[in-house]
Amino acid sequence: MNTTLKALPVFQPGTVWLVGAGPGDPGLLTLHAVNALQQADVLVYDALVGEAVLDLAPADCERIYAGKRGGRPSPVQADISQRLVRLAKEGKRVLRLKGGDPFVFGRGGEEALSLVAAGVPFRIVPGISAGIGGLAYAGIPVTHRDTNSAVTFLTGHGVGGEVPDGIDWAALAKGSPVIVLYMALKHIAAIAGALIEHGRSPSEPVAVVSQATLPAQTILETCLARCAEEVTAAGIEPPCIVVIGEVVRLRAGLDWQGAAEGRELDDDPLGLRHRRETG
Q1: Does residue 59 carry a pLDDT above 60?
Q2: Residue ranges of the Tetrapyrrole methylase domain (predicted)?
């Protein structure tokens, strides 16, 4: 292990590293992410990056908040990109830290292209996306050979905060057995309605995972027809990941955190053994 750590790259002055911080639990950071945190001169971080992660940076590392939260005053994206350029041109080691993975609904591609245009060297450090890692923590796999061989990742709002346009809801409803929604809580009623209108079953399982991988994590299991009203009734707030599909049923057997607290797990959550025995 010591040899591996010593071989990690040196964060050169005048460069920007675009780093994914994972879904929240600091233990899910990559070695490259921790290495970057320990060398950075300035840290430009998003709203979903927690204090436990930020505290891994040196005490004298400058912190700059650049978070975007729906419905709240947020930095302009162009200003964030230009700040990264300016800081790098000042000879600083600039760590752009994003929740999840920088290229999964994180606008990391836009920022990286701005660096390219300005001639600033950069490195991409992938992170665990909440749509995969957060669901795994909840005991929900995004693929399982008895349920699906395809999955769709979808943003729950457009650039202006509205229901995303340009989505072929009929094709999505018909063609994607599992749908994972990011930033969808505000429009969950409209999204569920569109999917049901185009053929999804109102009783299809849905899980809403709030504060994924963190101590405050909560999971609501519901169905497509009732998900919006039950989210409201439960008082669930973002950040959330929503997953729609039969994989949600697997949580009855794969809730490893619940098992540690005494939950009895079901070794046949899809009822396949019963179907074989009675079929």
Answers
A1: yes
A2: 15-225
